[in-house]
Automatic annotation (TrEMBL):
Residues 24-52 have a biased composition (Basic and acidic residues). It comes from Drosophila mojavensis. This is RNA helicase. PANTHER family: ATP-DEPENDENT RNA HELICASE (PTHR18934), PRE-MRNA-SPLICING FACTOR ATP-DEPENDENT RNA HELICASE DHX16 (PTHR18934:SF83). Residues 1-56 are annotated as: Disordered.
DNA sequence: GAGCACTGC
């Protein structure tokens, strides 16, 4: 692509009579861009070669580098700690061995000798052993509980007492442990008995609830398993005894193995329609390996929308194939590449594959690419569709498998030139669906009533309630707990557990705890339970029919998070959550008529709802110049694309021919919004790369840095104010990070300052990645502290699009759209009201708010973006911060 | 004086 451009442009400029300086600089830039891209490619190749020589894979090298660095930095601190750690691990292992030994001993003993043949002493000894085992087990259980503590605020502790809070992340330091934990959870939850099994015969409750909701059953979501099939079902114990091979054979996909391989051989693109539980994600790639699709050293790739899925599926498949994870079977996700030169089966997140396109635009190292969970329609899968469809045209030997749930298969087939659909049955129980007779005005209240109604009248079994956000969940939790308290012993125990993404992970783990016999668990969840979290043993689902959805308005450049009715697809997905382990019931808090006539068929895909700045830049970097005619499964709004292109042009990532510039090529290396990418690159000129990288990392996790527990709001706000910087929030965030880094990334410090450790850890990961990328785009890391003017100038160089000026009445108006906006009350500048501000984002909640604001001087705008701002636009600026209270008076003049 | 659904690079 680039060479063609160069030729064309070279000839056009030579035909010009006089030297056109603009044209010349464009050509020079294009040349420099291609030289830069070549350097990148060369460096990547050298790096790969080195890795292959070292045989350990990239991961090993990274690990080794990290370890060396660590050792160098604080060897003295770490060694004693490591010693304790290893001693502890040894003791732990020894204890486990001993307990297992004891248990086996008792079992043997009981098997060999009946109680009656034993002497008194032998009987006593057996009794003693059993007691010992019990104590050991109880002890272990208690320790498990201790290990996962609630969020303790420091002031809860007495003086001198050490905090016992253990961040769950501490256990994630071993390689792959996040996935191990996930698996353990999954396994544990699978073992929990379905509540009703333990229950005695249903007791009659004569209980009158305040109000009741009338439900009518409308239809049953068909399951592929019937109640009767349960007899043939394997108990957990039996399943454990089954070998891996037997388990594989028992999966619904197994009988289709040969047909599937034949179909893949015959067709280049195949749509696989299969429900969850069919085993397609783990089995299909293995079948293809067996069928020889990786014979010529090429890989089979499989994308997943979520990190945990990519990791755990890879681990499972490695086990089934009897290889070590990271060798023949590996996974690749952000911050973690667990593959080697031996890898033939690679699981990855869709975003990772999207990035891989930058260094390998033809997917040359793959013979098969599987896009799994395509129906979820994430931004990345949607873009991948267009890209792989294009590649398939000039690489006829590349096989594509698109795997999706039932409803969308036809649509995918049509998109991929009527590719054949291969259907695989799943495993699911039927779910009865109930609708309300009349619409419910207050759905929170209706939820609570329904929960109690189910609790009082229905057989035991856990309830899952879908709510829109933290706020609703907390309200609902209070109401339920209050009503349960008032009903007292008239009803059985009801355990209420909340779950949403921002909840600390130890509290999230509570949803996997077993429900005690004769009690019922109610899980109040956001959409997180719709796809991301799978909770077993749910029998009842309550679905009010709403969700929060992010929408981007490209006309105003504003994001809004609003409560909207869900789609039919989403409603059915929610209902399906009731039928995973047994037949279930789903109560919809809307009428059957509303379902039929008011709900959309499908949720609007993400690509149509968000800012596409980064996506467009990536596509440009891949040489796709005509974005308006890019083959989208669902094309995003025209204005969104135009806005993205416009911004890229203003930022200098595209030249006036719409071609990618060197600056744009460098920006594309960063997995951030183009404005932020520009800001990072501008830090080179302003000699503050250290600061900008930190700020970028903090901004990208920002929403969840400050922790505000409901009962300690005042403390939390005071703690937050201590970080406030007079020039704005970017600098406050910088202070937070730097102070944290000074404490050696202490967890304790986070709790003392009401800062979420999890978010900070993530910011650290992001920062590390960005530092690596800065080196990649040939920028040295330097710091400008304690001076911070350059920090704000570099931010302005990226975000000059996001500037507002104080106007009459204390409101701000955006410079380009003249739109009235306000500083968000959480900002450190909320009461300061500087004349000119720059904002990181514009969000519409109750009003139009600028979130993350810094004070700037208008003359900087002319310095960093002379092509975008005219001096006239910026007139009448005093550039002085107005004295508090006097601001308005001065403005009226 | 507000309030952040969920992912991912």
């Amino acid at each position: 692509m680039s060479s063609k451009n160069r030729k064309r442009t070279a000839s056009s400029s030579s035909s010009a009579e006089e030297p056109d300086s603009e044209e010349e600089s464009r050509i020079k830039d294009l040349r420099e861009r291609d030289e830069f891209a070549n350097r990148l490619k060369q460096r990547d190749e050298e790096r790969t070669r080195k890795v292959v020589e070292a045989t350990g894979g990239r991961k090993a090298i990274e690990e080794a580098t990290k370890r060396l660095k660590l050792e160098h930095e604080d060897r003295d601190k770490i060694v004693p700690h490591l010693r304790v750690q290893s001693r502890r691990q040894y003791l732990e292992k020894r204890k486990d061995d001993k307990v297992a030994e004891l248990e086996a001993d008792i079992l043997d003993d009981e098997y060999l000798f009946e109680e009656s043949v034993l002497t008194k002493r032998e009987r006593e000894e057996r009794q003693y052993k059993k007691q010992l085992l019990n104590i050991a087990k109880e002890h272990e259980k208690a320790r498990e509980l201790e290990r996962i503590q609630r969020y303790h605020m420091p002031q809860d502790l007495k003086k001198g007492e050490r905090s016992e809070y253990v961040e769950v992340d501490d256990f994630e330091k071993q390689p792959n442990s996040e996935q191990k934990k996930w698996e353990a959870e999954q396994l544990a939850s699978a073992r929990f008995q379905f509540g009703a099994k333990d229950a005695k015969a249903e007791e009659e409750y004569e209980l009158l609830l305040d109000d009741q909701i009338d439900f009518i059953q409308a239809l049953t979501l068909d399951g592929s398993r019937e109640k009767a099939a349960k007899e043939t079902e394997l108990t957990e114990k039996e399943r454990k005894r089954m070998t891996l091979e037997e388990t594989r054979r028992s999966l619904p996909v197994y009988p289709f193995k040969e047909d599937l391989i034949a179909a893949v051989r015959e067709h280049q693109v195949l749509i696989i329609e299969g429900e969850t539980g069919s085993g397609k994600t783990t089995q299909v790639p293995q079948y293809l390996v067996e069928a020889g699709f990786t014979a010529d050293k090429k890989m089979i790739g499989c994308t997943q929308p979520r990190r945990v899925a990519a990791m755990s599926v890879a681990a499972r498949v490695a086990e089934e194939m009897g290889v070590k994870l990271g060798n023949e079977v590996g996974y690749s996700i952000r911050f973690e590449d667990c593959t080697s030169d031996r890898t033939i089966l690679k699981y990855m997140t869709d975003g990772t594959l999207h990035r891989e396109f930058l260094s390998e635009p033809d997917l040359a190292s793959y013979s098969v690419m599987i896009i799994d969970e395509a129906h979820e329609r994430t931004l990345h899968t949607d873009i991948l569709f267009g890209l792989v469809k294009d590649i398939a045209r000039f690489r006829p030997e590349l096989k594509l498998l698109i795997s999706s749930a039932t409803l969308d298969a036809e649509k995918f087939s049509a998109f991929f030139d009527d590719a054949p659909i291969f259907r695989i049955p799943g495993r699911r129980y039927p779910v009865d669906i109930f609708y309300t007779k009349a619409p419910e005005a207050d759905y929170i209240d209706a939820c609570c009533v329904s929960v109690l109604q189910i609790h009082a009248t229905q057989p035991l079994g856990d309830i899952l309630v879908f709510l829109t956000g933290q706020d609703e969940i907390e309200t609902c939790q209070e109401v339920l707990q209050d009503r349960v308290k008032r009903l007292g012993s008239k009803i059985r125990e009801l355990i209420v557990v909340p779950v949403y993404a921002n909840l600390p992970s130890d509290m999230q783990a509570k949803i996997f705890e077993p429900t005690p016999p004769n009690a019922r668990k109610v899980i109040l969840a956001t959409n997180i339970a719709e796809t991301s979290l799978t909770i077993d043993n749910i029998i009842y689902v309550i679905d009010p029919g709403f969700a929060k959805q992010n929408n981007f308005n490209s006309r105003t450049g504003m994001e809004s998070l609003m409560v909207v009715p869900i789609s039919k697809a989403s409603a059915n997905q929610r209902a399906g959550r009731a039928g995973r382990t047994a037949p279930g019931k789903c109560f919809r808090l809307y009428t059957a008529w509303a379902y039929k006539h008011e709900l959309e068929e499908n949720t609007v895909p993400e690509i149509c709802r968000i800012n596409l700045g980064n996506a467009v830049l990536m596509l440009k970097a891949l040489g796709i110049n005509d974005l308006i005619h890019f083959d989208f499964l669902d094309p995003p709004p025209h204005e969104t694309l135009v806005l993205a292109l416009e911004q890229l042009y203003a930022l200098g990532a595209l030249n006036h021919h719409g071609e990618l510039t060197k600056l744009g090529r460098r920006m594309a290396e960063f997995p951030v919004d183009p404005m932020m990418g520009k800001m990072l690159l501008a830090s080179e000129k302003y000699k503050c790369s250290e600061e900008m990288v930190t700020i970028a990392a903090m901004l990208s996790v920002n929403s969840a840095i400050f922790y505000r527990p409901k009962d300690k709001i005042i403390h939390a706000d005071t703690a937050r104010k201590n970080f406030n910087h007079m020039h704005g929030d970017h600098l406050s965030l910088l202070q937070v990070y730097n102070q944290w880094a000074e404490t050696d990334y202490s967890t304790q410090w986070c709790y003392e300052n009401f800062i979420q450790y999890r978010s900070m850890k993530r910011a650290r990961d992001v920062r590390e990645q960005l530092v690596g990328l800065m080196q990649r785009v040939e920028i040295d890391m330097v710091s400008c502290l304690p001076e911070t003017i350059n920090v704000r100038k570099a931010a302005t160089a990226g975000y000059f699009y996001h500037v507002a000026r104080l106007s009459k009445g204390g409101n701000y108006k955006t410079i380009k759209h003249n739109q009235t906006v306000m500083i968000h009350p959480n900002s450190s500048l909320f009461e300061e009201l500087p004349r000119w501000v720059l904002y990181h984002e514009l969000v519409f909640t109750s009003k139009e708010f600028m979130r993350q604001v810094i004070e700037i001087e208008s003359k900087w705008l002319l310095e960093v973006a002379p092509h975008y701002y005219k001096a006239k636009e910026l007139e009448d600026s005093t550039n002085k911060k107005m004295p508090k209270g006097a601001g308005r008076a001065e403005m009226t003049q």
